[in-house]
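Q: For a teaching session next week I want to show students how multiple molecules come together into a single three-dimensional assembly. I've collected the sequence lines for a complex. Could you give me the predicted C-alpha cells for the whole thing so I can convert them for display?
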Amino acid sequence: MQKNLVIVESPAKAKTIEKFLGKDYKVMSSYGHIRDLKKKDLGIDLANSYRPLYEVPADKEKLVSELQAAVNKADVVWLASDEDREGEAISWHLYETLGLRDKQYHRIAFHEITKNAIFHAIENPRRINRDLVNAQQARRVLDRIVGFELSPILWRKIKPALSAGRVQSVAVRLITEREREIDAFQSEAAYRVQATFLKKEGGTPYQINAELNKRLKTKEEALEFLNRLKGINAFTIDSVVTKPAKKSPAAPFTTSTLQQEAARKLGFSVSQTMSVAQKLYESGKITYMRTDSVHLSSLAINASKAEIGEAYGKKYVKTRQFSTKSKGAQEAHEAIRPTYMNAHQTTGTSQEQKLYELIWKRTIASQMADAELERTTVTINIFEDEDVKFVSSGEVITFDGFLRVYLESTDDEPADNEESTLLPPIMRKDILDLKESTATERFTQRPARYSEASLVRKLEELGIGRPSTYAPTISTIQNREYVEKTNIEGTDREYNVLHLKKGKITDAIKTEKTGADKNKLKPTDTGIVVNDYLTEFFPRILDYNFTADVEKEFDYVAVGAEVWTDMIDRFYKKFHPVVEEALNTHEDHKVGERILGIDPKSGKQISAKIGRFGPMIQLGTQDDEEKPRFVSLRKGQSLGTITIEEAIKLFDLPRPIGEYEEKELTASIGKFGPYIKFDGKFISLPKDADPYTITQEEAIELIEAKRKQDREKLIKIFEGKDGKDGKDAVQILNGRYGPYIAYKEKNYKIAKTVDAAALTLKECMEIIKTTKSKTKTKVEKKEKKKTKVTEKKKKVLEEEAKEKKAKAPKK
DNA sequence: CAGTGAGCGAGCTTCCGCTTGACTT
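A: Of course. Below is the structure for the complete assembly, covering every listed component.
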C-alpha cells in the first residue's frame, strides 16, 4: 500500500504528477473546493463574530468519502493545492474535513509541473498559512453578505430571481454607462483632404498619396481650400525623414488575453474559448488555462529557443521573462503555453487545432527578436508661410523578427486609409504636380460597445473577477437578462465628397452605413433599472475601486496585520444599515416606474415599469376599484423612451377582427410574434402582416391556408388501442423538415431515401427503435428547468438508503 | 427545431471562486 497521499486541485494534474512520483505515492484530486458556506440562508453566524457555517455540498460527498478512505490508509498526506489564497483555503478545508493531524500532513506547492519542481516542493514542505486562509474566508464571507443581502432587495423592489454581487453588478454598470455615453454622443463632421501627386520631369517618375495635416470644419472651408489648390502649379517636397523603430512581441497568454485574441482572431465566445482550452489541457497539450500569470518556466523558454533557432535561425531568438501587470494577480500557475514546444500543431477538432496554433504562435513569438522597421514621413509644402501641409508616411520592415510568426490584433477598427505603404524613392526639393484631390466629409465615431472579450479585459484591468470567473460572469449577466447581445442593422447616412481634378471641382453626395453593431453587449431595461437603483443606494459596492480597496484589506489579513472578522465587522456595520434603509424606502415593485400620463379613454393612469415578466405597461393603479391591466413591451421598445401613445396602442391587442364560421377571430402578439386566434388555435402571421391592421378577409385566408397545410400534414395513421389519437398510435406526418413519425410524444425523422407514404407499421416500429429521437418530452423539458428539484429528490433517496444501511445489522 | 401564446395565493430565487461532469425506472 502507498504510504503517501498527495492531493491536488485538478485531476489532469494528478495524473501527470503520479507519473513523476512513482509507486510510493497515490495522487488524488479535490476538484477544487470541497466545502463551502451553507447553500441555504446566509451561511454566516452574525451573532457569533461572523463564524462561517460550512458544509460539504451534495455533489462532493462521494468524493470526500473517497478522500477520507485514502487518508485513513496513508501515513503522510501532502496537501498540494495551488499556492494562492483559494489554494491555501482548499488545503485548510481538506485538513478540517478529513480530520488531519498536524504531524500527519505537509503543505506543498509547485508552480510548474516538472519533475524538479515537484521534488523541490517535497523537500520543502511547510504548514498551512492560517493568515492566508483567513484572507480567503474574509473574501468569501464578504461576497456572500453582499450577494445575499442585495439580491433579496431586488426581488422585493423590482422582480423575483434577480441577483447582485461585487463582480456582476459592476460588469453591468460598465455596460450601462457605456450605453449612456453612446446615447449622449454627438457626432461631428469635418472634411478630410487627400491628394495624389506626380513627380514633375527629371529623375525616376513616381506617384505619391498624401493627406492634409488638418481637417477642415465646413464645406465652405473645404471648397475654398480646393480652389486655392487649383491655382498652384508646382508643389515641393519639404522634408523626407526616416526613423528606425522597433516592435516587441506581446507576453504569452493569460486567461483574459487568450479570450480576447481567440475572439478577435477566431471569433470564439469567451466560454467557447474556455471549453476548447479545457479539452487541450485535459489531453495534456497545453498548460493550465485559468491563470493570470505571464511567467514561463525555464524549460519552456529553453524549448522555445531551440525551436526558433531551428526553424528561423539564431538571430530570431531573444528570450524574455515577462512580468504581470494586472491588478490582484496571484500567479499560482504558468502562462498558457503548449506543453511541448516542438509540437507546432495538434490533432483534434478544428477548433482545438486553431486554438492550439494560436497558443503555440503566441508563446514562440514571445521568445523571438524584436521587429525592426523604418518609418519615413514626407511633407509637401502648399502655401508659403502657412502651417498646412500634405503628409505621407510609409513603413518598411527591415527585420521581421517575431512578426514572422505572430501579430497581436487590436480591438480598434483600422482607421480608414491609414494603411502604411511602401514609399517611392523620394528626394527633398522634388517638384510635384497635383493629379487630383478629394475632400471627404467624415464623422467622429461614437464610443464602442463592449464585446464579451473587451469586457473581460476591462474587468481584469480593474482587478475585478478572476480567471475562473470571467466566462461565468458574462453568462450570468446575460442569463439574468441585464444585458443582451446587439444585432443592429444600422442606418444610411449621407456624406459629402468634393473632388478636384483637371482644374474642375465636382460636388457629390454618397451614403454609408452607420451605427451597425453585432454581438456587442447592451443593457436591457431590467439591467438599467437594477443598475440605477444599486448605484443610487449602494455607490460603494458599485464603485469601480471597491474590489481593489477590499483586496488591500485582504492583503493585510493575509500577512497577519489585520483580524479578518474585524475587517468584516467594519464593513457590515456600514453596509447593513443601508440595506435596511433601502428596504424601507420606495414602495415594493415600484423602482424604475415612469408615469406616462392619463389614458384619455378611461381616465386611468398609464405607467411603465419592470414587471414579473420584464418591462411592461400598466393601465390603472392598485388603488383603483378595477384591477389594473398589464401588457409587455414589444421588441425594440424600451422603458426610457416609450411614449404614452405607443403605450396606449399596446392595449389594442388582442384585437377582435370579426367572426368566421360563427366563431370569434382575434389578432395579437405573443411570445413567438404576431398571430391570429380562431377556434382555440393559433396561427402565426406572415412577416408582412400587422395584427393592428389585418382584416377579417386576410385572416380567413390564413385559416384556410393553415387547414390545407394540416390536411397535407397527415400522411398516414396506424391506430392504436385507443383509436387514432390514442397514446400508442403511430402517425406519419409531414413537417417543416420533411416527413417524420410521431409516436408516444416523440418524433423520429424519416430518411429522405424512404417513401414515407409506403411505410408499414412494422417498418415504422423499426425506425422508432433505431432512430434517436431528439424530441424532449414535456416532462424532460420541465425537469431541465428545475434540476434543483430532482437534486433534492436524489438527496432524499440517498438519505433513505443511508438509513437502511444503518439499520442493517453490522457484520 | 417537429409546436408555442405568462398573469394565485406557496415557496422559491441570490453571491464569488476553486474544479469537472452531466443521474436512470
